[in-house]
Predict the 3D structure of the following.
Amino acid sequence: MNRYEPLFYFITMERYEYPLLYYRYSHDAVLGFLVGAGLQVLEKDLNDLKSVMATYLQKQYKKNGYFPGWHLENASLKSVEINLRPSFSDDNVQYAMVESLPVKVYALTGHREGGAIECYLPWLNEHFVCFEPAQLDTLLQHTASMALRRMAPEQIFRLRSYDKPGLDKIVLRVNTNKLRAWGDTGFERSYPVLEQLTEQMPLRRPKAAGAPALPETAWEMDETVADVAERIAQTRANVLLVGHPGAGKSTVLLSALRKITKSRQAPGSLTFWRMMSQRMVAGAKYLGEWQQTCEALIEELESASGLLWVPDMAQLIVSGGSSPEDSVAAFMLSFLQQGRLQMIGEATPQELDSMRRMLPGFTECFQVVYVPELPEKKVQSILEKYAALAAQQLKINIKPEALAVAYRILNRYYPYEQFPGKGIRFLSRCLNEALIRGADNIDKQDVVDTFVQQTGFPPLFLRDDMPIQQEELRGFFQHRIKGQHEAIDRLCQIVKVFKAGLNNPHKPIATLLFAGPTGVGKTAAAKALADYFFGKGRSQTPLVRLDMSEFQFPWQVSRLIGEGREPGQLVREIRERPFSVLLLDEIEKADDSIFDALLTTLDEGMLSDALGRVTNFRNSIIIMTTNLGSGGPSIVGFNAGASQEDATRAAIKGRFRPEFVNRIDDVVVFQPLGKEDIKRIAAKEMEEFAQREGLVSKGIRLSASERVIDHLAETGFDPVYGARPLQRALERIVADPVAAWLLANPEQRNIALQLDYTGKLEISVL
């Protein structure tokens, strides 16, 4: 029907019949299944059951303007008996019963419009449509057999105990003697589910004043846009755009939809609706609710001549159910095959491979269009066009040298994303910063400043005209790390290699194993490296720390990596902070399955989940710590020397498999601390204590005598725990008396305090 024809909908009284399956759960309880609505209710008798369900359906009609579910004619109950041998697996060994068991399965069938037969297996939660009546029994036998084979033995025995269900129906009547829709000369048609879950495309809301200029067309991709537009509008195909992040998939689809809308290529009144996959199942509270919502969505799309755009198509396969076979994608499959639903979507090549492996029938419904990586010349052209658009709309001039610097920086530090996406997003951020500052130009320094703010990188890494200062570099780490000359040398070397641009771009920046006794500075070294690499101007700490003693069992790998649609702790942290130091503390305590899961991450800097979604570690430094080989106490004033280092390296080789150790760039052995090292650490802790808020806010300058430092070093060092108890000693010996003095002298401000130790802490005003 043409959208320019007036539409009148005058309906008087509609009658709906819902088949109701019920089962006598106990002598005073009846369990009912409202077929098609996904509703299960337990009541004391059949009359109460029907009353509750009818009330629920009336409320749904009042809320949404329609009744959910199927409307079958001539519903009847069928049964089929399946012989099978229940089995289960344990540690990759399959166990099966010796004899076969007969299992009776009941199914509800009924006719739908067009003559097809719909079949629902309530106890198995299965459903199919049969277009040839002669094939109904065969399809029923096959569907029941496949469902039973996926069930555990205890579920099958429970199913055999069920009695035959009863069949009844709920009849509803609704007075709809009112105008529901009017054509272009009157009211617009209402789509409550579409309006709740989707947004109509192209967006019609006005652009906010002063917002960054975003391109409306896919520059340099005209052929791909034309191809996609023709597939969507002329052949009415389901289209899946496949490309790496940043390749321009969304922009191509948006440009194709605009082209269709502008030229009116599509027959009839084709409309476009965009939906993120998680919205389909968000808020679903009871069994069958999202299925009901999905079916209502498809019905409204049919009514609106609508096409559904899902940007995260792969997510549909892991949304809704516990497996791909009962997911949202599986539910939509029959509608796609019948031509009742037209979809377009996006996926990466890895996600496409996973979709084909997990639910091949769903992927086969789509025509795949690949969005290739653009050559450098076209990328430069797109960035120049974007700069021209910004100058036209925002009156902000992005200088050519700024574009060149942006391209060079993004090309090096974001190799896992493609142009033009990463370039457009970064330049949009630069424009945001310029708008906030009220600037009308963006030069190369502005580009560097924005990148520093985004990543925490110091300008030293981004500017070729800034040479590295060897003494300054070493002094930074010597101030933070005491008594570990080998570790300082290694950290300085990592900085130099990265500054020279000689690090492997297809691996993490560095992968290190810090070994040595507790309390000798392994964690302090990781923090120092994090602050130097990624701590410039960042409010959030660039150190991601995970205690690997929390992952001592094989099943905990899913909590670390993730499973299904839920990312694990490691994935969440790195996606949030891709420029960071990842500290895996006490790595030797983790289960071996954790090491296997980390192999690809250490080797290639990538971690892929079951759906093909990639988490990138190539802008991270991975540091693992271990106490292996240092079971003896740290002895003040003595260096265990080569014997201890050899014992540590031997213990590491004994604990980890060669393929894991070979993926580590270097093992840095931390030596036991001496007395002078402990004193230097105590002096550093006192310097940091003097900068605490309670002192700085009152303008109090704090200094400590040598006797205070000596007493802290002696009290805060333990032969077993190294310098770790020093913090507790500082709180007890210094913080408590100073706090008591401040509370007793609240009027004292802008003064200098001298601390001395003569059997107790002495505090005097200078």
Observations:
- The chain is about 40% helix and 20% strand.
- The first strand starts at residue 10 and ends at 26.
- Residues 313 and 345 are 6 Å apart (CA to CA).
- Residues 1-13, 176-188, 632-641 have pLDDT under 50 and may be disordered.
